[in-house]
Amino acid sequence: MPLNSVLRGDCIEVMRGLPAASVDFVLADPPYLVNYVDRSGRRVANDRNDHWLVPAFEGIARLMKPDTFCVSFYGWSRADRFFHAWRRAGLAPVGHLTFPKRYASSTRMLRYQHEGAYLLAKGRPPRPAAPIGDVIPREYTGNRLHPTQKPTSILTPLVRCFCPQGGLVLDPFAGSGSSLVAARLVDRSFLGIELDPAMHATASARLSAGPRRRPPLPADVGAAA
Ligand SMILES: C[S@@+](CC[C@H](N)C(=O)[O-])C[C@H]1O[C@@H](n2cnc3c(N)ncnc32)[C@H](O)[C@@H]1O
């Protein structure tokens, strides 16, 4: 199993070559199936179609160890398709996370001011030692590195809560590598997969630069006890 790197390719193909039951936590930020185009014309690969959705989550579930968690972001307007894929893969929803923003990302029928993710279980994972709240405010990243870049500040609590110390975090839709950076910040091993060559280069550069570790927080020390 290649560790602490981001592999370039289609996650469905790449995951086929990885050993089953080898991952402790999956943090997935897949395309939302909304054909998103940002103000400068940037798009997200595979955001127009869902042919990849079922096989990708079947591959994810195969790599998860028994009784472990996956957090998956999703597009709210395509929630039915995500649920179909998760259930086909044998992943059961056991919680829902909301990430409110101080700004609206768009305004139509509502001012759209939050994103969501489901906490999914393979088997029956034990209750986390220190469960986190299901509302995590998010700041604006500026989307400098990716058109839908997630702030690492909303990802580190997820990794700390749902991945055991010394465990391996997988992000099959790594984008600019935010979840991999988050995993590294809290001292977990990580593996990313990214289809878009430009994004893969961005994530690789980001991982080879920047701080490798931050000093342990009291929360980590408590979690280890
Ligand atoms: C929502 S973005 C992830 C953004 C990331 N969380 C960040 O903060 O930069 C989804 C990513 O999945 C990638 N992608 C889409 N289909 C894929 C596939 N089949 N295999 C691997 N990556 C894929 C896209 O290129 C895109 O970068």
UniProtKB/TrEMBL annotation:
<dbReference type="InterPro" id="IPR029063">
    <property type="entry name" value="SAM-dependent_MTases_sf"/>
</dbReference>
<keyword id="KW-0808">Transferase</keyword>
<dbReference type="Pfam" id="PF01555">
    <property type="entry name" value="N6_N4_Mtase"/>
</dbReference>
<dbReference type="InterPro" id="IPR001091">
    <property type="entry name" value="RM_Methyltransferase"/>
</dbReference>
<protein>
    <recommendedName>
        <fullName>Methyltransferase</fullName>
        <ecNumber>2.1.1.-</ecNumber>
    </recommendedName>
</protein>
<dbReference type="GO" id="GO:0008168">
    <property type="term" value="F:methyltransferase activity"/>
</dbReference>
<dbReference type="InterPro" id="IPR002052">
    <property type="entry name" value="DNA_methylase_N6_adenine_CS"/>
</dbReference>
<dbReference type="InterPro" id="IPR002941">
    <property type="entry name" value="DNA_methylase_N4/N6"/>
</dbReference>
<keyword id="KW-0489">Methyltransferase</keyword>
<dbReference type="GO" id="GO:0032259">
    <property type="term" value="P:methylation"/>
</dbReference>
<comment type="similarity">
    <text>Belongs to the N(4)/N(6)-methyltransferase family.</text>
</comment>
<feature type="region of interest" description="Disordered">
    <location>
        <begin position="204"/>
        <end position="225"/>
    </location>
</feature>
<feature type="domain" description="DNA methylase N-4/N-6">
    <location>
        <begin position="23"/>
        <end position="202"/>
    </location>
</feature>
